[in-house]
Amino acid sequence: MNMKQKKEATIWHALIPIVVLIVTLGVSIIWYEASPHIPILFTVVVAAIVAVYFLGFKWSEMEKGIIDSIKMGMQAILILMVVGTIIGTWILSGTVPSMVYYGLQILSPGIFLVAATLICCIVSLATGSSWTTVGTVGIALLGVGQGLGIPIAIVAGAIISGAYFGDKMSPLSDTTNLAPSMSGSDLFEHIRYMLYTTIPSLVIALIVYGIIGWRYAGKALDVERIDLILNTLSSNFTISPWLLIPPVIVIVIVIFKIPALPGLIAGTFLGGIFAAIFQGAGIGDIINASHYGFSIETGIEITDELLNNGGLDNMMWTVSLILCALAFGGVMAKTGMLKAVGNAILRIANNTGSLILSTVLTCIAVNLLTGDQYLSIVLPGRMYKDTFKEKGLHPKVLSRTLEDSGTLTSPLIPWNTCGAFMWKTLGVHPFAYAPYAVFNLLTPIIAIIYGYLGFKIAKVDKTEEATS
């Protein structure tokens, strides 16, 4: 029997699974308050049917695409699992409770959001990892914010903004290295060029957080509530400045360019050692906290919400969501339907502004459709590299745009690897914190504005190009 000849995917083919995804996710999440896993899996089936009956693909080819897509996300999945063990042991050891305890005594509502953002900026810049930042100091800051009476969604938005500043700007970040490699620009040239969009976004975000914080500064602190939290923490844990050593060591480990997984595993071991020394935890307690997370019933709801967290097992919901999203992205990429979406967007790019707008929209679309931050940099980077070159634009314009949109919008999407991680780690739905993740929202907009104004849009030096 002759093999069915493959057809090139068109935007109309791609729109079938895309529309199904939007409708099924909307109905399931909004109407039935269900998890997004099954709607995404259902859409994988729909995409596969379109590929088989309309485009001539075999299942074995799509299965390879799914496996390749999951391979790209495996490092993120492994990090997610290890961060679960860190959170569990750091709560058991008293590290997170100590951070919350001292934070409640130092920070005030008026400056808290600005301080939280800057703290996360510094930690993520030093580590190059938004995930490490959120999974360590982010959790502690969330507890402090709750204790100060600031809505949890606003606190989470400030934490995300600060964490992604470093994820975008640090030379230790994987995405910061990936974007220039996709566009053909130099790493440090890429970092310097990102300052033009990143600094204005961060300054505006800090001003916004300052204004929001000012609203809470005038309110009398709920001293009774804060004292209740402090007393609950001190009565259930040994609180000590020495317990701040594990996060400091993890940050130092990452600064010295030790790979993320060994560095984070070291953080788990440190948590276990400190739990034994300071809290008298046994080996069984440490293993259980690493696997199932920390559990306690203090009778104080806000404290229990903060402390009952972590564990490898607790991350499996998120891991399964990431696998579903990567499966969908694998089918869409392998069958060319994702490329068809990019080509359709590219048709409107008749000038620099519209080209940058197209790149931003494509990065967001890939984040939405594949659920993977890396694919949102790799695929648009490959798609637009030649077009930017034809327009005479320097590769660093493309690499900056990839990060401005691909990196920064990923935590705002619940089924994206980054959004799912933030959701599970902070316990706040991405749709709840998204309006307050000011830095993440502003940067892609500023990139588009620069494109249409022609501001800080570098052109290729013809003499340099001729000698290269």
For the biggest sheet, the summary is: none
Please tell me the overall pLDDT.
Answer: 85
The H/E string reads: HHHHHHHHHHHHHHHHHHHHHHH
Low-confidence stretches: 464-468
Computed structural class: mainly alpha
Count of structural domains: 2
Record field, number of beta strands = 0
Q: What is the gyration radius calculated from CA atoms? A: 23 Å
**CA-based shape:** globular
**Helix share, percent:** over 70%
Total number of helical segments? 23
Which strand-content bin applies to the residues? under 5%
Distance between the termini: 51 Å
Q: How would you explain this protein's 3D organization?
A:
This protein has 468 residues and is an all-alpha fold. It has 2 domains: 11-71 and 316-463, no CATH class; 77-315, no CATH class. It contains 23 helices and no strands. It has helices at 11-31, 37-53, 59-93, 95-106, 109-127, 130-147, 152-169, 174-183, 187-217, 223-236, 245-255, 260-279, 283-292, 301-307, 316-334, 337-346, 352-370, 375-390, 395-409, 417-426, 430-433, 438-453, 462-467. Helix 1 crosses helix 16, helix 9 crosses helix 22 (438-453) and helix 11 runs antiparallel to helix 12 (260-279).
